[in-house]
Amino acid sequence: MFSDALLTEIRNRFAHVESCPFTGQRVFFENAGGALTLNSVVETSARFAAIPDNQGRDNPASKALQQVIDRARDDVRRFFNASGGSVLVGESGTELLFRLVRDACLGAAEGGIVLGSTMEHPASRSACHRWAAESGRPHVLVAHDDATGTVTPEAYAAHVTPDTRVATVVHTSPVTGMGNDLPAIVAAIRAVAPDCFVIADGIQHASHGLIDVAAAGVDGYVISPYKVFSRHGYGVAWASDRLTALAHDSLVGGPAGNWELGTRDTGAYATMSDVVGYLDWLGGQMSDTAEQRARLVAAGAAIKAHERALTDAMLFGTGNLKGLTEIEGVRVIGGAENAAREGLVSFWIEGRPSAEIVTTLNEEGIRTHLRKADHYSGNVLHPLGQDDCVRVSLCHYNSMDEVRAFLAAMARLG
User: Fold this and answer.
1) 43-277: which CATH topology?
2) Which of 131, 176, 316, 325 is the most buried (most CB within 10 A)?
3) pLDDT value for 254
4) What are phi and psi of 85, to 5 degrees?
5) Would you list the domain boundaries of the chain?
6) Which UniProt keywords are listed (predicted)?
7) In the CATH scheme, what is the code of domain 4-37+292-412?
8) Below-70 pLDDT ranges, the chain
């Protein structure tokens, strides 16, 4: 875990760590719904919102804005460990998943299938459902493992065919909290269909560990910055050179390979540089390496270790406080002993409405979230025979004291 001194430094870099501007003091365990925002992101957003100039003009301010965008794209490439390809900003992570999936489906060779899994968020699953049909292909779904809350490379391997044209993979589930073995899944796909376009949903994963698109071998990777310490209002994606080479929406006579339509928000790009700069700083506290990517790797490893300690305490207890696994009637999605867990615990209590638990915790100053068996979470909850569950999601700025507050509140539920 982080030392108390370092954790204090970390928490000081974020807005609203200990209190909500509407309700006052609280513990924030709703990070999967949107992480806390870096103070630097707040400042950067305000600064760029006031600038009247736009990129693409022949004046010094415009050229300076373009330099900010170029720098941010380079920062994102290092964050993703991507060489080549395109970095693009869109309306949201969901919108970008739709765009990448659409262009892959319409640009791939005719025939074949579109492959995905039952573990996926409706963003990628809905995009494939639509564009598989529009391109005249079946959308084949690989079943996830209810017991572990993951989808395995072996499960993908059982369904991939030589004519698989497009495949999607969710890196981490926002319902189970489990990370999938992205490189192994992609390898299983490419072993049979080497030319398949593979697009990864990294929205839940981005704040909890390392992103490495080079090692994964994907053609597209999408994140939502508001879930990785930035703000709402935009999404970020990386698209490989071969995905970028496909036809996509663009202005007639415009630059070749350009993904973006209209003038982009320079402040959105600039806030991604803030995120990467923060992770660079954090990695520098854990390593004395002079190479930025190595510092980002060190930050990712430290984040995973800190969050693992917190979720273990949440599950198995700490001091004289019982963990969730020791509370009668608690059922943890994906099982308590699961190495794939990334900063999230979803559970229910037999015979007790999850909505009641969330409301009671909120009254105790513990912010969690109710997941219902709807279009967002039904793919996980329906097979378990559950109508809902409680999701407790944390990030590396959360503390053991906050976990203790949660466990004490759970003990008072009686």
Assistant:
1) Aspartate Aminotransferase; domain 2 (3.40.640)
2) 176
3) 83
4) 75, -175
5) 4-37+292-412, 43-277
6) Aminotransferase, Pyridoxal phosphate, Transferase
7) 3.90.1150.10
8) 414
